[in-house]
Amino acid sequence: MLTKKQAKFLKSLQIKKYRKESGNFVVEGAKNVLEAVNSPFVVEQVYGTPSFLEEHAEILADIPCEEASEKELVSAGSFASNNAGIALVKMPRNVPLKVQGDEFVLVLDDVRDPGNLGTIIRVADWYGIKKIVCSQDTVDVFNPKVISATMGSFTRVSLYYCDLEAYLGRANAPVLGAFLEGENVHQMEFPKAGYLVMGNESKGVSEELEAKVTQKISIPRFGGAESLNVAIATAVLCDNLKR
Amino acid sequence: MLTKKQAKFLKSLQIKKYRKESGNFVVEGAKNVLEAVNSPFVVEQVYGTPSFLEEHAEILADIPCEEASEKELVSAGSFASNNAGIALVKMPRNVPLKVQGDEFVLVLDDVRDPGNLGTIIRVADWYGIKKIVCSQDTVDVFNPKVISATMGSFTRVSLYYCDLEAYLGRANAPVLGAFLEGENVHQMEFPKAGYLVMGNESKGVSEELEAKVTQKISIPRFGGAESLNVAIATAVLCDNLKR
């Protein structure tokens, strides 16, 4: 059983301020909990339904586990239903990522929607992109809606939040940026490594960052839609990058 | 001012049963309302804030308009905020689409999430795909969350709901289908026209429809994610189709 105090603590971790204070975040649902347990993340506790804990007893063997009902999991979390569990996980520190000379790094300039960030992390993971650098205003990766939308990919993709202007000012690799008027990605050769900058949902890439972009690129349009959602555009660009 | 009766009527149109009864659906927010007015759809009424109605007086000239406050628009609609308007629009009948010999048609097998369907319609519009055939269990296109996610593209893409097994049984063009284990789309030649079947969010393409697919195709994976969201996969496949 989840005590009132435990439920209140888990619930508080939906808010960034309390995650920062405690150094913890929560992971909800079977897929994400199992991915967290199977990853380098430090899982401090799993609250699970009796059937979830029993079914995964082997993989959960080294983790402190406690039984909780579906109702308790829902009231302590952000899901409308949860017949599996919630993991309490230690939040890693925000540390600069060591970029290798042969890899592409995603750069997110103020992506605000949790679903979009989570989906972008899942897309990056699909395409083997392991690092994402985010502006300070980009939504927090440890927001439970972001974690949920990653479908476990948060365990394989590292994020670093910083001042992007300063960061890209020090970059010594091509900086591609997604714009409505750029080079057609169906017709260009991509460099072997570098950065790919994606902009805010409504404003796109900011003027300050535009100045750091060395090559503007575009997804060709064949119909009437004015734009594509940022997670959709990221996926299409990664697919073009990797072919 | 919106009367209580009008507000109640608009609100009722969030439910499919009432849309069917009245033959109407609602379109919310500046972008979608203006796209509806500028389209072949029959807009019966626009409820708008005084500033929205004034700013777009010219394009709204032939439409019956009524003033409403932001608060009234929110309470009569599905948005958390709406400083523009709501349009009451006549719902077109569900009629079979005439497929030309040189076009690609999307086929959706039981896509359930309104945000996914809306995003798929927007993606189809971006790539110049004008027709989508949906299974009877696919979420209704006139659901306000679907309309909202299309960002106006619902005015340029036609949908038809039917029994897909029977429909594809009569198809005399290639039927491509998205599967995790299919031909790598980075290495294959696409036919010039045909159908592209996308499956349900968790179950993928059903067995019954799999039997109608003439070519299974896949987006190559470079990392650890197990799958891609259906709207993301649709966008990547459309991009490959159109290059």
CATH topology of the largest domain in chain A: Alpha/beta knot
Number of strands of chain A: 10
Q: Would you list the SSEs of chain A in sequence order as H and E?
A: HHEHEHEHEEHEHEHEEHEH
Mean pLDDT of chain A: 96
Estimate the strand proportion of chain A.
Answer: 15-25%
CATH class annotation of the largest domain in chain A: Alpha Beta
The largest sheet of chain A is: 6 strands, parallel
Oligomer: homodimer
The gyration radius over C-alpha positions of chain A equals: 19 Å
End-to-end CA span of chain A: 50 Å
Low-pLDDT stretches of chain A are: none
What structural class do you assign from the helix and strand content of chain A? alpha/beta
Task: Lay out the secondary structure.
The structure is a homodimer of 243-residue chains.
Chain A: H1 4-12, H2 16-22, E1 24-28, H3 30-37, E2 43-48, H4 50-55, E3 65-67, H5 70-76, E4 85-90, E5 104-108, H6 114-126, E6 131-135, H7 144-149, E7 158-162, H8 164-169, E8 175-184, E9 194-198, H9 207-210, E10 215-218, H10 230-242
Parallel strand pairs in A: 2-3, 5-6, 5-9, 6-7, 8-9, 8-10
Antiparallel strand pairs in A: 1-4, 2-4
